Amino acid sequence: MRLDIGNALASVTDPGISTEELEELDNAVERAHDRIVEGMESDEFGYTSLNLPDSTDPDAIRDAVAGFEDSEAVLTVGIGGSALGAGTISDTLGSNGIRHEMLDNVDPEAIIAVLDELPLAETTVNVVSRSGTTAETLANFLVVRDAMEKAGVDWTERTIVTTGDSGPLHELAVEHDLPKLHVPEGVPGRFSALSPVGLVPAAIQGHDIEAVLAGGQTGKESLSGSLSECPAYAYGAVSYALDERGASINAMMPYAEGLETFAEWFAQLWAESLGKDGKGQTPARALGATDQHSQLQLYRAGPRDKMVTLVRARDRTDRTIPETEIEDLAYLGGTGLGELLDAEFEATEASLAAAGRPNVRIELDQLDEEGIGELLFAMEAACILAGELYEIETFTQPAVEWGKRAARGLLGGGEFEEAEAVASKEQHIIE
Amino acid sequence: MRLDIGNALASVTDPGISTEELEELDNAVERAHDRIVEGMESDEFGYTSLNLPDSTDPDAIRDAVAGFEDSEAVLTVGIGGSALGAGTISDTLGSNGIRHEMLDNVDPEAIIAVLDELPLAETTVNVVSRSGTTAETLANFLVVRDAMEKAGVDWTERTIVTTGDSGPLHELAVEHDLPKLHVPEGVPGRFSALSPVGLVPAAIQGHDIEAVLAGGQTGKESLSGSLSECPAYAYGAVSYALDERGASINAMMPYAEGLETFAEWFAQLWAESLGKDGKGQTPARALGATDQHSQLQLYRAGPRDKMVTLVRARDRTDRTIPETEIEDLAYLGGTGLGELLDAEFEATEASLAAAGRPNVRIELDQLDEEGIGELLFAMEAACILAGELYEIETFTQPAVEWGKRAARGLLGGGEFEEAEAVASKEQHIIE
User: Fold this and answer.
1) Which regions of A218-346 does DSSP assign to beta strands (E)?
2) Which residues pair with B251 in a beta bridge?
3) Nearest-5° angle of CA A326, CA A342, CA B283?
4) Inter-chain contact B399–A296, Cβ cutoff 8 Å?
5) Which chain A residue has the Cα nearest residue B84?
6) Where are the alpha helices (DSSP H) in A118-230?
7) Which of A293, A335, A346 shows the shortest CA–CA distance to B142?
8) Shortest CA distance to A394 belongs to which of B298, B267, B110?
9) Which residue of B has its CA nearest to A102?
10) Gyration radius of chain B's alpha carbons
11) Which H or E run includes A3?
């Protein structure tokens, strides 16, 4: 992975980071790295996420998916960190003829559409929940199981479970002898992509999950006490420093359709880890080149409250644009679509810099197994580093509990004072 | 459409709007409405967008798509405002068995995957570009035409063109006698959903495009000089006022998978129209309930720089969650997935309010033709109103031109000084 922060320097952009500030930041990175290494070595909650490239056993995943590789589809039933990592890896690497659908919401109309359309007898259900009690996931799983039964499909022959060492999903797996994988201990969902939580669909699709982990390993080996040697830490430190200087929004803008889900995964990682104590940079998801025709006007001419992260792979399969008789477009004929995309990437980057808007370039060699493994690991390390600099608790998500209790109370799942607050909503209606 | 701004009042949230401030805002809305009506009546550039529910001729669209309703797929080739409106309407209303794909990017790998997989002989190509020279759109169209020729499909029998009254696409349509629809005059792309630009795929899919326009008409009729009588203006005015008070980010969070593309459409509308002169609220796309497990932590406990817009339909098809033997989840059995989604909607809204975070509720009766027509019109009117309050030029997008010239220069399409700036990029590389 290659990071270029040239367009985040104070000599180019405002906000920007001066050379002196970069040196100060380097000292802070050294201290944070020591803390992170300590956490990794003692398998401390959260920090141990960075050990996954070593601790994840690909053979256990291969065993669990054995016999499912001839599926026509994989249906992941999970939400948040139990779905986005799997979606990211699978969408980056491509379907290989086995499509991957996710039920990561409880919209009945969408779920009915998916179930009506999937070949259930040839679909592998990949249900993921650490506790085995996540309301959305279990509700969806009950609906899927029911749909399979009604279609005459034995769901116990088509289901893989990834969960903790106890709880309803664990018990269900034992009772029906389902292939079962473990959610890793001490790893919050949003940091679990490089574990069975993220790797099952890719394994079924025939991707080289060992290479994904090897990519993570490359990232792990590059961790060091200086940001000038570690792209992951440099990204986290620069994002933090730009936020402190007013870039409170981080627009993650990959130039690859396959990385669209990655931008969503990043948004969860960043928002849920760093959005605490009134702090935290807000991730915005964008997609190049598409969003040049949508968000770029704002990024370039709106408030100076943003940094843009541009991501691309340096090698890809290209497709040549045919020659054309249209005079105004003759220059495109014979060019590759990928060359056009690259020109737009560089043009957007320069266009932001020319307007003094900070942006950072992340380049991978290829969007392959190693590339995505390294990218996911690097963003996790960047996030943990940023959490140290913000001095917040990176690995918790306390603010989401209130709403969970309220929803449960509303549905008759117990007495919760939060549910009463819902009933007393202040109204000011215009219709 | 029903708007509830109770959770944006200063008595509930910070930032928030006091009752006195709401009255002042109402005066500003009255003046802005007069300006907007003047623009509509004189068909002034941009303002005439709000006339589309009347000026769009559904019969012309029906004529153009006649014979294409038995397609297996529609492939829209367009980008930005030439794609997002069509995607939004089609994704909201559902495929009706005729899938809608969009080529709105120039990623060769994604395009190869789409073309390999589409039944080209049964696919209708819907190419949209006002000028007929948009680089991405024309490059993709040349590739699609080539793929059809190689597959032995006569592309001239399968292509509908929506463009201006001159230019290469117009000439192509004349030369090959293709069905041709007009991009409306005086309407920027992002305001053109309620025209042929947005309605062709829905018409092919058999949706009632007259009802979509009727929904827009309902929105038009509700425009009035007071925010207390016009939900669209109230939304624009409240968003503006919250931005002025620090809510520089507007998280658009529909609770319906079918509205995911709508959130993207909204992001373009808001960003490209209002992101000027250092002003403009940054749209963030979210999706309920999924993003409760991703963004909500930040929205509730991060910086007080956000408003959240929650959107839902009050009626929908539901699916019952089967009874379960799992004790902890027994409360879900017999409940509808839609009821669960509604409970989460209300819980999230209350959870934000309890943390003093402003949020606004938009409700439609149903996610049907009239509902989406009214919603799109209302957001356009809200945006134009906000543009008046910001005192910016809502209908232009000058900041995107720099990058277009740079990209063209890089590809040998002429001499542009912007391309030279790309070559002199400041580098600071970490790898």
Assistant:
1) 249-254, 282-285, 306-315
2) B284, B308
3) 100
4) yes
5) A294
6) 135-150, 168-176, 196-204, 209-221
7) A335
8) B298
9) B290
10) 23
11) strand A2-4
Query: Which of A290, A316, A420 is the mutation pick for testing B, counting most B CBs within 10 A?
Result: A290
- Mutate: best of A337, A348, A363, A424, partner B, most B CBs <10 A: A337
ipTM exceeding cut-off 0.90 for this assembly: yes
Distance CA B244, CA B235 (A): 14
B200: left (phi over 0), alpha (psi -120 to 50) or beta: alpha
Q: Which residues of A touch B412 (CB under 8 A)?
A: 331
Cα-based distances in Å from B395 to A35, A297, B233, B236, B379: 51, 12, 17, 16, 14
pLDDT in tens, B374-430: 999 999 999 999 999 999 999 999 999 999 999 999 999 999 999 999 999 999 999
- Give tens-digit pLDDT for A345-367: 999 999 999 999 999 999 999 99
B156 exposed, middle or buried (CB, 10 Å; 0-12, 13-18, 19+)? middle
**B182, β-bridge pairs:** B163
Amino acid letter at A347? Answer: A
Closest CA to A216 of A239, A243, A187, A241: A187
A-chain CB neighbours of B234 within 8 Å are 430
Looking up tokens 């397609």 gives B71
Tell me whether residues A290 and B428 touch, CB distance under 8 A. Answer: no
Fill in the amino acid letter for A294.
S
Task: Mark yes or no for CB contact A6/B140 under 8 Å.
Answer: no
Tracing tokens 């995607």 back to the chain, one arrives at B87
Using the Cα atoms of residue B399, residue B402, residue B403 and residue B404 in order, give the sign of their dihedral.
Answer: positive
Give yes or no for a contact between B94 and A113, defined as CB atoms under 8 angstroms apart: yes
CB B54 within 8 A of CB B221: no
Instruction: Count the neighbouring beta carbons within 10 Å of the beta carbon of residue B124.
Output: 25
Q: Which two tokens stand for residue A65?
A: 């998916």
Q: Where in the sequence numbering do the catalytic residues of B fall? A: 272, 293, 404
Q: Which residues of B touch A3 (CB under 8 A)?
A: 429-431
* Mean pLDDT in order along chain A per 10 residues (431 residues): 98 97 97 98 98 98 96 97 97 96 97 96 98 94 97 98 96 96 97 98 98 98 96 98 98 98 98 98 97 96 98 95 89 95 97 98 97 98 98 97 94 94 95 94
* Number of CB atoms found within 10 A of residue B87's CB: 23
Tell me the nearest-neighbour CA distance from B126 into chain A, angstroms.
18
Please tell me what DSSP assigns to residue B352.
H
Of B79, B347, B426, the CB nearest to A7: B426
Contact A133 B339 (CB under 8 A): no
Residue B371 sits at the vertex; the CA angle it makes with B368 and B376, to the nearest 5 degrees, is: 125
Residue B189 half-sphere exposure, CB side, CA atoms within 13 Å? Answer: 22
Please judge whether B293 and A400 are an interchain contact, meaning their C-beta atoms are less than 8 angstroms apart: yes
Determine, for residues B328 and A168 on separate chains, whether the beta-carbon distance falls below 8 Å.
Answer: yes
Q: Is the CB of residue B285 less than 8 Å from the CB of residue B254?
A: no
Residue B238: closest CA among B137, B85, B382, B60: B382
Residue ranges of domains in chain A, CATH in brackets? 2-37+214-390 (3.40.50.10490), 70-205 (3.40.50.10490)
Structure tokens of A80?
A: 């948040």
